[in-house]
Amino acid sequence: MPERARLDALALAGDLPGVLLDAKRLAASAPGVHGRRRSGQGEAFWQYRDHRAEDGARLVDWRRSARGDRFYVREREREAAQTGWFWIDPAPGFNWTSDPQRTTKLRRAQTLALAMAILLARGGERVGALGQPPRGGARAAERLAHDLMTPQRDAEAPTNSCIIFLSDFYESVETWRVRLAAAAGAGATGALVMIADPAEEDFPFEGRTLFLDPSGRSEALLGKAENARALYAERLEAHRHALREMSARLGFPALLHRTDHPPAPALAMLLALVSERFA
């Protein structure tokens, strides 16, 4: 494992209990998902429904039907679990906050991903870090947290999967078009969770300001940073507009979340965006 990845993994490992606690608290406040509660091949009883002509006499539940003047069919619950996959941006700039008293973008992404994983696992589905084996059962979220310890790289999308990408999405729209088109080509859909620090949204800088690339490869010095505020906002909005339009066409609608806002509304919106895949 590269040294940077090893150090990141160790840092995350030490913070795992806190992240998991945050995720469990967040999941407890969410409505949850119904998981695989629909008819299909399985053993567990799900519900009765009215008999239809195409069912024939063989499917009639005669014991239930004898209690009234209608014929009923006993439906079973579908047992084939689906998988929710997660990809969290490994870029150094994602593990950043403008205020030491506020969570980093990475920490908020981990919390949202694990809270979503808890809800999916509770609904009977499996969860996995993209590129790692999927997990199921009561401890699926804890195992996923360990899988997310090592910064993720691009991985092939599983066929007909649901993938949730969590990032600040500052890479070019073309980079994301290639990534999402490959996933869509495999039949995948999902959602983008765009996580931003308030300083990235509001650009509060004034006067002589030195901006450093988190990777350490470049820097920019502005004599009057406030003069760049309007142009910065215009370019950021144009970038996000293009990203939203492109990702929506490929089956990955996007939502924006600021780290100075509570995470519960973002989780609820994420649930709404992907719930059809697990209905």
Gist?
This protein has 279 residues and is an alpha/beta fold.
Layout of helices and strands:
Layout: H1 3-28, E1 45-50, H2 62-65, E2 72-76, E3 83-88, H3 105-122, E4 126-129, H4 140-147, E5 162-167, H5 173-185, E6 189-196, H6 198-202, E7 209-212, E8 219-222, H7 229-249, E9 254-258, H8 264-274
Parallel strand pairs: 3-4, 3-5, 5-6, 6-9
Antiparallel strand pairs: 1-2, 7-8
Describe this structure as you would to a colleague.
By secondary structure, the chain is α/β, with parallel strands linked by helices. The chain folds into two domains: 3-35 and 81-278, Rossmann fold; 45-76, no CATH class. It has eight helices and nine strands. 28% of the residues are buried.
Keywords:
Rossmann fold; single chain; 279 residues; 8 helices; two-stranded antiparallel sheet; alpha/beta; 9 strands; five-stranded parallel beta sheet
Radius of gyration from CA coordinates: 23 Å
CATH class bucket of the largest domain:
Alpha Beta
- What is the strand arrangement across the widest sheet? 4-3-5-6-9
The helix/strand order is HEHEEHEHEHEHEEHEH
Task: Give the tally of structural domains.
Answer: 2
The appropriate CATH architecture of the largest domain is 3-Layer(aba) Sandwich
Number of helices: 8
Number of strands: 9
Helical amount among residues, as a percent range?
Answer: 25-40%
Envelope shape: elongated
Q: Could you tell me the strand content as a percent range? A: 15-25%
Low-confidence stretches: 5-10, 37-46
Q: From the 3D structure, determine the CATH topology of the largest domain.
A: Rossmann fold
- What can be said about the biggest beta sheet? 5 strands, parallel
On the 0-100 scale, what is the average pLDDT? 85
Distance N to C terminus: 39 Å
Summing up helix and strand content along with how strands pair, one would put the structural category as alpha/beta
